[in-house]
């Protein structure tokens, strides 16, 4: 990579953990030494933190790469590990879920209560003919029953496919089809943005589209009543949760399943149009999800109140809402709605109400909080927070500093956690009691994880250089395949560095002079301008460093002269607009600003001031659509956008100029 991206790496601020934090931290420097001395032995130790019905004797079988087997001859029950064992240890009265509904209703669910509920649901599943290996689709709002549904499926050895509640009937149908689900668990609807957002009608639609022939794998639909909205009912197929679950027996002995028994499929978008069903299995996945939740989030289950804001429809909700925290016996907040409903301080009100100590969210959320302004969180008592986490995209140093000062009281450590749906659990992150934090860098591979940054030929680039992020050794929570498509699995992740046997993550990264890792965005988001490589991430970071800019997205647009040209879309801060009546001249200023921050090569050809950016429901900016606008094409498929109107608004704003 060119020197133009050096400016991010001149970050000199360092933040050591507060001494008291470091003294009590779960993750210690000794973990690195132990893992470096004996990587497999280290993971075997972590796996032994779980309850095994049959202890494993073999740690890793890598005899048929890239198809790994971890703890293969061991047997466990994932739900037993998340529930029964805590009750048996005398912690049944500990609260597992502090649930907050969007309208303000709430429920506290203890480990004993959640165990009882999951046992009943497991009995219902068995009555409905669900057996080990069968697939169950879950399409639910963020309510305790959603977590119970996942655990009940796991308890009977079946495989869940959680489909995010914001996906359309059509996306749900393709996912049900691909997995051949026998049962769908849903709700009438859930609360979102102040009103009931219906779910069951989308299930009806998805199933109707599939007809009733042999292709119709779904036999039943289990429905939780949450929204109270009117729904249609298919007798014989549809069942109310509140009728069948309380009526079922609460006696259910968890059976052991092999460590490599499939646990879930989770669909994620790839470079082609067809979503990939990422497959995860049981023992290795749970080992790494639980371990990372303990050491990265510094979880002390007896005292902490943990809140990961992810929806269970995404991998973060799987690993850091359902499996990791419950395997560790944590007490956690589960919130149904959006962070700004019914008022912009909703998240802070929840932190204050429950005394949240660990808060894990996405940079996109942090930036939207910044946009609203620090006066909103200032109205609440956030002093309980002692650790902050970030996930999903690079966090720009400005957002990092805001996060630390406004939410973390100027001292809470921040962990910037890099991982993917495919990796199953965190791979790169600081250990908060050990590592001196650097704003903007995800920093180092976790103990037991082997990461490198390499060139196109797989050669290490070395400190001070950029290249492609690879994982060089198998890890316990690695994906075991793409559902029904082993060739695509090999081709997508392993073919590029076939001879080295590396997993290619699809991300560009850079090692700084300390050997710390800086994620530079997906490699498909890296532009090539006049033969110089530029990172969209870096230019965005520069733009949001300008006092006028709340959010920015940068794309590389085809350009006759330079190959690609930088095109930026910026959302301007409300406070800036109030102060400056005219935005004339701002475009020029921003172009100059970027040139000044990074170098003339990075000066955007075009800067468009827009009111919103196109984002998926999980908050990722859809650069593909912006590239369409930047290149004057008709905008492509917008169905995965959270708000499908955004693109017509942006196109209007751009053409008007
Ligand atoms: O590009 C990286 C980015 O998100 C991708 C994985 O997306 P997904 O499978 O949806 O999982 C998101 C939640 C784990 C990665 O390839 N990404 C994730 N975390 C970070 C990140 N980029 C930079 N820094 C991170 N901390």
TrEMBL record:
ATP binds at residues 392-394, 416-421, 507, 522, 533. Residues 538-620 form the AMP-binding enzyme C-terminal domain. Residues 29-82 form the Acetyl-coenzyme A synthetase N-terminal domain. GO terms for cellular component: cytosol. CoA binds at residues 192-195, 316, 530. Its EC number is 6.2.1.1. Acetylated. Deacetylation by the SIR2-homolog deacetylase activates the enzyme. GO terms for biological process: acetyl-CoA biosynthetic process from acetate. Residues 89-483 form the AMP-dependent synthetase/ligase domain. CDD domains: ACS. Keywords: Acetylation, ATP-binding, Ligase, Magnesium, Metal-binding, Nucleotide-binding. Its cofactor is Mg(2+). The modification N6-acetyllysine is found at residue 620. GO terms for molecular function: acetate-CoA ligase activity; AMP binding; ATP binding; metal ion binding. Transmembrane segments: none annotated. Belongs to the ATP-dependent AMP-binding enzyme family. This is Acetyl-coenzyme A synthetase. It comes from Microbacterium radiodurans. The gene is acs.
């Amino acid at each position: 990579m060119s020197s133009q991206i050096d400016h991010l790496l001149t970050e000199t601020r360092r933040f050591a953990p507060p001494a008291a934090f470091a003294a009590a931290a779960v993750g210690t420097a000794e973990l690195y030494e132990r893992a470096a001395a004996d990587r497999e032995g280290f993971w075997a130790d972590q796996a032994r933190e779980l309850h095994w019905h049959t202890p494993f004797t073999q740690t890793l079988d890598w005899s048929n790469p890239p198809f790994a087997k971890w703890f293969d001859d061991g047997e466990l029950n994932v739900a037993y590990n998340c529930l029964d064992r805590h009750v048996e240890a005398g912690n049944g009265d500990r609260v597992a879920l502090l649930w907050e509904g969007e309208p303000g209703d709430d429920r506290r669910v203890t480990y004993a209560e959640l165990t009882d509920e999951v046992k009943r649901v497991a009995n219902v599943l068995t009555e409905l003919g669900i057996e080990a290996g069968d697939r169950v689709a879950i399409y639910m709002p963020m309510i305790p029953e959603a977590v119970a549904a996942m655990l009940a499926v796991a308890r009977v050895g079946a495989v869940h496919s959680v489909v995010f509640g914001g996906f359309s009937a059509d996306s749900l149908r393709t996912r049900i089809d691909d997995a051949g689900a026998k049962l769908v668990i849903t709700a009438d609807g859930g609360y979102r943005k102040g009103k009931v957002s219906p779910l069951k009608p989308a299930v009806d639609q998805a199933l109707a589209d599939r007809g009733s022939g042999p292709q119709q794998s779904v036999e039943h639909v289990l429905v939780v009543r949450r929204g109270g909205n009117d729904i249609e009912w298919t007798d014989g197929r549809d069942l109310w949760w509140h009728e069948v679950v309380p009526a079922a027996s609460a006696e259910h002995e968890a059976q052991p399943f092999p460590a490599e028994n499939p646990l879930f499929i989770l669909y994620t978008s790839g470079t082609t149009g067809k979503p990939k069903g990422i497959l995860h299995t049981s023992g290795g996945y749970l080992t790494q999800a639980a371990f990372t939740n303990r050491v990265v989030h510094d979880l002390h289950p007896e005292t902490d109140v943990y809140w990961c804001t992810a929806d269970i429809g995404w991998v973060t909700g799987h690993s850091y809402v359902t499996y990791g925290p419950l395997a560790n016996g944590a007490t956690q907040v589960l919130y149904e709605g959006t962070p700004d409903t019914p008022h912009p301080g909703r998240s802070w009100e929840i932190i204050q109400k429950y005394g949240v100590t660990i808060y894990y969210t996405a940079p996109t959320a942090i930036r939207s909080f910044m946009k609203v302004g620090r006066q909103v969180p200032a109205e609440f008592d956030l002093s309980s927070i002692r650790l902050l986490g970030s996930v999903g995209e690079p966090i720009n140093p400005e957002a990092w500093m805001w996060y630390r000062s406004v939410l973390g009281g100027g001292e809470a450590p921040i962990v910037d956690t890099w991982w993917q749906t495919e990796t199953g659990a965190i791979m790169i992150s600081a250990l908060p009691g050990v590592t001196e934090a650097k704003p903007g860098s995800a920093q180092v591979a976790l103990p037991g994880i082997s990461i490198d940054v390499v060139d196109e030929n797989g050669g290490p680039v070395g400190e001070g250089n950029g290249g492609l992020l690879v994982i060089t050794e198998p890890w316990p929570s690695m994906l075991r395949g793409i559902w029904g498509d082993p060739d695509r699995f090999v081709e997508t992740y392993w073919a590029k560095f076939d001879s080295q046997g590396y997993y290619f993550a699809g991300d560009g990264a850079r090692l700084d002079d300390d050997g710390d890792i800086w994620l530079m965005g997906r490699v498909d988001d890296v532009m090539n301008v006049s033969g110089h490589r530029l990172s969209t991430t870096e230019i965005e970071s520069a733009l949001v460093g300008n006092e006028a800019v709340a959010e920015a997205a940068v794309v590389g647009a085809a350009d006759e002269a330079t190959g690609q040209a930088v095109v930026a879309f910026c959302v301007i801060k409300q406070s800036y607009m109030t102060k400056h009546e005219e935005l004339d001249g701002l475009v020029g200023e921003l172009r100059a600003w970027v040139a000044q921050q990074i170098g003339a090569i990075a000066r955007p050809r075009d800067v468009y001031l827009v009111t919103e950016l196109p984002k998926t429901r999980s908050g990722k900016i859809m650069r593909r659509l912006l590239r369409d606008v930047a290149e004057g094409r008709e905008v492509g498929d917008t169905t995965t956008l959270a708000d499908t109107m955004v693109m017509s608004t942006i196109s209007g704003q751009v053409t008007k100029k």
